Amino acid sequence: MAMAQVVRSEWTKIRSVASTVWTLSLAVVVTIALGMLISALSKSEYDNMSAQDRLSFDPTFTSFAGTSLGQLAMIVFGVLVVANEYSTGMIRTSLAAVPQRGAFLFGKIAVATLLALVVGMATSFAAFFLGQAMLGDLKASLGDPGVLRAVFGGGLYMTLIAMFSMGVAAMLRSPMLSLGILMPFFFLISSILGAVDATQKVGRFLPDQAGSKIMQVVPPVGDDTPYGPWGGLGIMVLWVVAALIGGYVVLKRRDA
Amino acid sequence: MIEAVGLTKRYGDKTAVYNLSFQVRPGAVTGFLGPNGSGKSTTMRMILGLDNPTSGRVTIGGYPYRKLPNAPRQVGALIDAKAVHGGRSARNHLLSLAQLSGIPARRVDEVLGVVGLQDVARKRSRGFSLGMGQRLGIAAALLGDPQVLLFDEPVNGLDPEGILWVRNLMKALAAEGRTVFVSSHLMSEMALTADHLIVIGRGQLLADMSVRDFISANSAGFARVRTPDTEPHLREKLSLALTEAGGQVLPEQDGALRVTGLALPRISDLAHEAGVRLWELSPHQASLEEAYMRMTQGVVDYRSTADQKAGLQQPLPPGAQPPVPVPGQGQPGWYAPPPPQHAGAHPYGGPGAAPQPYAQPVPQGQAAPAQPPAGAPAPAVPAAAPAASAPSSVSPAPVTDPTKSEDAR
To answer: Distance (Å) from the C-alpha of residue A87 to the closest C-alpha of chain B?
Structure first.
């Protein structure tokens, strides 16, 4: 009852602000365009690659290269959906209308997640097909083992990134603070930790590194990652659940 | 019916609301008055279940807000008119709230018409003026056709026509039997709109009474008497005669006398007997604004200091006079001519150590008497002290029969 009302209201809210269109279309365009670019470059470089690199060349993962940048737009989308309530003060009006704060938060997150899922899936499939088109005779096909899983996983990955951002924004209650923490976290810290041997073992349990495993079809040579593609996505889901629980507890406990 | 019992809210070591108990009844407009930062908005938020009280409780129709069945259809509130997403159109803003409360979409167009925003319904609210924002907030409060309405500073930013509209709207809502609770820091506005007043200062109850009682208790009348400027001795002579007859005489800054405790005909007779000519003899009522300022002056959190403009002022040219400050502007405490019968006994009385501005004659053209340094804390009304003196339905201190204390002097 209350949930259905929240969902309808949130759909009105999310479709009536320009930031939704901007962030989501940016995510689509950046992910696809960068994926195509990297794919085209990889094809022209393929002949110069070492044997080892050729062996572990993953056409599917290459076409998802744009995700690392496109996910930032997804983060902005997730953060704005939740934190705009706080920055505008709408949260008070909303919570006065729906005193059941859990229903309010999860209704909001459900609507935004569904939208992110639709956009994420479309992006993932488009990035795959367009990327493969760039790769020419190196391309993988959707019927190859593990490829369909990777393409689906790409859509799920984008969705989970948005959900994680929503949970963090619900905890921090400010768009600037949330973006200020999430952006460097995903763009810098995660890749720095992954680049150094000593921290790599920790770094691969971070949500983005664990989650992006799902998009890999051909593992790199000498890969010793202790989890598989679904295991990695599971780790990412745990992160998301933790962020959402944190956001719920903060909303429930604190004064609006 | 809104009922608060022992409502207290602390933020860290700052007490925003302390032991507040009151009832807001249906069928009347109840004004909620207090200076800035006195806890009005905090109280409003606690009524709506947005903030949890540290102790005490507040209920609407017997339920705490979060337990109230179908809350948005029973309670409508304007908390903050700026609390809208600027990129969303007025209609979509209201539509999302209507859907959230299970209210049909056609009601949105109805309330847009009620508040007069139908022409800009599809415009982004970012471009709205303060007054249009207030109208949008009021529209949101009216959406569910609720029996209980809360408005936090609804007339802020409205033009005179808008203020009149809000005033009539509140009265009409109350006349339909609804509970209307309106906060404001403008006494003059509340005197015209409200039937009942709840006054708080520093989060504590100062008064809970009908507007009529508030007026009769607080607006002590006085007479202004002016003797010829040319003959100062007549003024002293009259002062003496009036004091002997049992009146209280306070000299005013422009040389007139403010007389309380004597009827106008009696003053005239006394002047005649003393052989003093009068240039003016006029009846005056202390305004409600003055009464309110007097009541709250001890509990104002933010007050201005005189701007010394240190280092900014040009040296005066030789022979020039420094400008004379206008009395009563920017000077806390100037307002309040305490009703003579309560001088010194007022528990919430303002800067207690300050001399009464009227107590000594001030030579004309000179600055008003020195004020206590404005930065100094007003006589503390610590959280604990008035606890005992603030039983749940306080009748405020100044309510004493004005006729008695005259004899007492």
So the answer is: 9
Residue A211 belongs to a domain? yes
Nearest CA in chain A to B51: A255
Report helix, strand or coil for A38.
helix
Q: Whose CA is closest to B391, among B204, B212, B211?
A: B204
Distance CA B409, CA B405 (A): 6
* Residues ≥6 apart with Cβ < 8 Å to B25: B1, B179, B196
Let me know: does B153 contact B131? Beta carbons within 8 Å: no
Q: Is the ipTM of this complex over 0.90?
A: no
Residue B83 at interface with chain A, using a CB cutoff of 8 Å: yes
Note if the pTM is more than 0.90. Answer: no
Q: Is residue A128 part of a domain?
A: no
Distance, in Å, from the CA atom of A31 to the CA atom of B225, rounded to the nearest integer, reads 85
Domain count, chain A: 1
- In whole angstroms, give the CA distance from residue B45 to residue B35: 17
**Given B88, B89, B97, which is nearest A93 (Cβ)?**
B97
Q: Do A95 and B96 touch (CB under 8 A)?
A: no
Residue A198 in any domain: the answer is yes
Report the pLDDT value the prediction gives residue A241, as an integer from 0 to 100. 97
How high is the pLDDT of residue B291?
73
C-beta pairs of B117-121 under 8 Å, 24+ apart in sequence: B117/B90, B120/B90, B121/B89, B121/B90, B121/B91
DSSP conformation class of B186: -
Q: How far apart are CA A132 and CA B154, in angstroms?
A: 60
Asked if A98's CB is within 8 angstroms of B99's CB, the reply is no
User: Please, which pLDDT band fits residue B92 given cuts at 50, 70 and 90?
Assistant: very high
- Among A5, A255, A256, the residue with its CB nearest the CB of B100 is A5
Range of the domain at A103: 3-17+71-121+141-253
User: What are the φ/ψ torsions at residue B268 (nearest 5 degrees)?
Assistant: -60, -45
Going by DSSP bridges, is the β-strand pair B204-210/B179-184 parallel, antiparallel, or unpaired? unpaired
- Does a structural domain hold residue A126? no
Contact B284, B222 (CB under 8 A): yes
Tokens of A249: 């507890």
